Amino acid sequence: MKRKIRVFLLLIFLGLTSGFTVFSADSLGDVTAPTGFQAILVIVPLILVLVLLFLKVDMIIAGLVAGILAMLIGGISLQDANAQLLETIPSMLSITVPIINSAVAMAVFKAGSYSAALTLAKRGTKGKVEYASAFIVILLAAATYMSGIGGGSAMVIAPLAFAAVGVVPELIAGMSLAAAVSFTTSPASLESSIVSKLGDVSVADYVSVMRPFWLLFVVLAILLAFWGTKRRKIGFKEVEDDAFDKKSNGELLKLTIPAIFLLFAVIFGPIVNELIGFAFFTPLVYMILTLALVFICTDFTMNQSVEAMVDGSTYILTRLFQVGIFLAFINVIAQTGTFAVIAGVAQNAPEFIVVPVAILTGILIGVPAGAYVGSVLTLVLPVAVSLGFPPIALGFVTMGVGLGSQMSFVNITMQALSSGFQIPILDVVKGNVKWLTLASVVLLAIGLFFG
Q1: How many CB atoms lie within 10 A of CB 10?
Q2: Is residue 196 part of a domain?
C-alpha cells in the first residue's frame, strides 16, 4: 500500500512540475495531431482508460490515472486540467430539460401509474399472455423514454412482468432491446445530454432525428416478445395479495393518467406547440401539470408528489456530476491530440464504412464496459464529431453502445432484469446475446444507408 501511495504522489508531482508545451484548444478540431512516435504515445492514455474500465475500475479513478499520464505525455499543466474540471461539471449539470423529465417520470413511477397500466393490460388481454408481453415491452420503452433511465425502469417493471408472465427469454431480450434504444435516444437521458454537449446539437433536435429509429427498434422488440411468448404457450401466473388486482378498471385507468399525459407531453408536445403557434408544452408546464395529475389521480399528497420528483432527480444529477468529472480527464487526454490522431487514421478509410465501423466500435466497447455507457460515449463520440458525423450518425453510434451494454454482466439494466425475473445474470446475458447481436446487425445496416 505504501508503495502505491508513493507512486501516486510521484505522478501528481510530475504533473505539477511538468513544463512542456501545452496544447490549447477550445474544441477537438483545434488540436493539432502529433506525428511520428508522439502520435503513438498519445494513444496510450486512451488505451489505459479502456483497460481500466474493462477491469471494472470506477470511471473517475480510470479517468484520473489516464489523465495524469496524458498530462505527463502532453505537458499539460495542473492549471489547465483544473480549468477543464471547472468547465465540464457545470456544463453537464446545465442540461436542465433531461433532469426535469427524468425527475418527473420517477414521481409517476413511484405513484404506481405503471403497475396500474400493466394490471389493465393483463385484464384486457383475457388470458392471451403474448399480448401482455408485448404491452410490457411497450411499457418499459415508454417508461425509459420518459425517464431516461433504463435500469430504473427495469427495476420497477421486471418484477411485475415476472409476476404476470414468468421467465420468457424473448420477453427479457425484447425488454433489453427496448431499454437500450430508449435511454440512448430519450429527451431525459444522460446519454442524450452527452451527445448534445459533444456533438453541439440541442437535445430536442437529436431526439427528433432519432425518433423514427427508436420506434423501429421498439416495434422489433415488441414483435420479439410477442412471438417468443406465443410459441411457448404459457398462461398468466396467479399472484396473491396484489393490491392493484383488487381495484376496478376505472380506478386503474385513473392511476395511469399521469403516465399517459407525461408520455404525450414528451413525445407530442413539440408537435402541438407548432400547431398552436406558441410553446405551451414546456418543461415548466408539463412538470406542474403532471405533478397535479399525480396528486389528483393517485393516493399521493401534493407534498409526496413533489418529494418523489425531487428524490427522482438524484439518479441523473449524480450521473451528470460523475460524467462531468470523467469528461474533464477525457478532455485532458484530447488536448494531447489523441482523438485527432485517431480521426486522421479514420479519414483514410472508405467513406461509406466509416459510420458502420464507428457503430461497431461502440457495440464492442459497450459489452465489457456496459456499466459506464456515458463514459464510453465520451471516448467514442469525440472521434465521430471530429470526422464531421451528423447528429443521426452520432445517434447510431450511441445506440450501438446501448446495444452492447445489454450483453454486459455489469450493466444496471441487466442486473435489474436478473433480480426482477429471479434468474442468474448469466442467463439474462446468454438469452440476450443472440437477439441483441441480430439487432446490432440491423443497426449496422441502417448506419450504412442512413449514416
Answers
A1: 10
A2: yes
Q: Are residues 305 and 282 in the same domain?
A: yes
CA pair distance 189, 374, nearest whole angstrom:
10
Q: Where are the strands (E) in 257-381, listed by range?
A: none
- For residue 30, pLDDT over 60 is answered with no
Q: Quickly list DSSP for 162-225.
A: HHHT---HHHHHHHHHHHHHHHTT-TT-HHHHHHHHHHT--HHHHHHHHHHHHHHHHHHHHHHH
| Contacts of residue 355, Cβ cutoff 8 Å, sequence gap at least 6 | 389, 393, 396, 397, 447, 448, 451
Q: Is the pLDDT of residue 11 over 60?
A: no
For residue 380, give the H/E element and its range.
Answer: helix 373-386
Of 41, 25, 43, which is closest to residue 343 (Cα–Cα)?
43
Question: Has residue 385 been placed in a domain?
Answer: yes
Q: Give the model confidence (pLDDT) of 66-89 as tens digits.
A: 899 989 998 888 998 899 889 888
Instruction: State the residue range of the domain holding 247.
Output: 96-312
Q: Which helix (H) or strand (E) holds 38?
A: helix 36-41
- Contact between residue 378 and residue 327 where contact means Cβ atoms under 8 Å apart: yes
CA-to-CA dists, residue 349 to 344, 355, 380, 443, angstroms: 10, 10, 17, 20
Predicted local distance difference test score (pLDDT) of residue 31: 58
* Distance in angstroms (rounded) separating the CA atoms of residues 443 and 451: 10
Torsion of CA 35, 36, 41, 42, to 10 degrees: 10
Extract the C-alpha cell encoding 162. Answer: 415476472
How many domains are contained in the chain?
A: 2
Within this chain, do residues 304 and 332 fall inside the same structural domain, yes or no?
Answer: no
Question: Cell for 7?
Answer: 507512486
Contacts for 29 with CB less than 8 Å, ≥ 6 apart: 386
Cβ pair 246, 92 in contact under 8 A: no
Identify which of 111, 163, 112 has the alpha carbon closest to the alpha carbon of residue 136. 163
Tell me which H or E stretch contains 309.
helix 302-335
The residue written with cell numbers 413511477 in the block is 109
How far is CA 112 from its chain centroid? 23
Distance CA(99)–CA(193), nearest Å, equals: 10
Q: What residue type is 406 in one-letter code?
A: Q
What is the DSSP track for 49-106? HHHHHHTT--HHHHHHHHHHHHHHHHT--HHHHHHHHHHHHHHHHT-HHHHHHHHHHH
Average pLDDT of 347-356?
77
60-65 contacts, C-beta under 8 A, 24 or more apart:
60/322, 60/325, 60/326, 62/326, 62/375, 63/325, 63/326, 63/328, 63/329, 63/330, 63/375, 64/329
Asked whether residue 61 carries a pLDDT value surpassing 80, the answer given is yes
Task: Quote the distance between the C-alpha of residue 101 and its chain's center.
Answer: 14
Together in a domain, 82 and 144: no
